[in-house]
Amino acid sequence: MRCFDLVRQVLLAGSFALALAPSASADQNDPRLPALFKRLHDTDNLNIARLTEFMIWNIWGETGKPELDRLMKEGEAAMEDEDFKTAVAKFDAVIAARPDFAEGWNRRATAYYLSGDYDASLSDIEHVLELEPRHFGAISGLGVVNLAREHDAAARDAFERVLSLYPLNVPARANLKLVKKRMDDGAI
Question: What is the rounded CA–CA span in Å between residue 92 and residue 111?
Fold first, then answer.
């Protein structure tokens, strides 16, 4: 499908114009999110789902403050460099400044997971989901942490929860298939 066709489909669906509307409060409380989540749930077009996911992540990542946006980028860069201590420190600063900002908690949960600190990751995931129960990234993270800990039933439940929000989520489908196979193999 050509890019123009994809954009045209999204425009016809009504979510593209809504997603581009200016917002004073961009984060998990952004008024554009309900329509985007509806589109994410209802579409049967993988390209539209991926574009919608991209729009949701962009909204979730908007702190509304340039200094916090800088800290978020620095934390991401530190994670890419596998400097998890620095990443956690950057996200700590974001969380201290905006404890109601779900994505700060989510990014720190990711840094903790990547560093092998599953308990801290799970604790941060809980904060994310208190602030944004639809955060399919955090729910997927919950599944991945539970996979790593071999808590297969909890991992299965998390990936099923992701798919209830975002049925075309390819990684969640693959992880659900993996955990179900592992559970079936263990039942022998």
Answer: 11
- Tell me the pLDDT tens digit for each residue of 120-136: 999 999 999 999 999 99
Question: pTM, whole model, 2 decimals?
Answer: 0.85
Question: Which residue matches tokens 């123009």?
Answer: 4
Helices 102-115/66-80 angle, 10° precision: 20
3-state helix, strand, coil in the chain (%, to 5): 75, 0, 25
Strands (E), the chain: none
Kindly compute the dihedral angle of the four CA atoms of residues 30, 126, 175, 166, in this order, to the nearest 10 degrees.
Answer: -20
> What phi and psi values does residue 24 have, to the nearest 5 degrees?
-80, -25
Question: What are the residues whose beta carbons fall under 8 Å from the beta carbon of 4, sequence distance 6 or more?
Answer: none
Measured between alpha carbons, how far is residue 25 from residues 7, 33, 56, 96, 145 in Å? Answer: 25, 11, 14, 18, 31
- Mean pLDDT over the full length of the chain: 88
- pLDDT above 70 for 31: yes
Structure-token pair, residue 19: 């997603």
- Whether 188 has a pLDDT exceeding 50, the answer reads no
d(C-alpha 169, C-alpha 98), whole Å: 29
Contact 60, 36 (CB under 8 A): no
Q: If we measure between CA atoms, which residue out of 97, 124, 94, 119 comes closest to residue 109?
A: 124
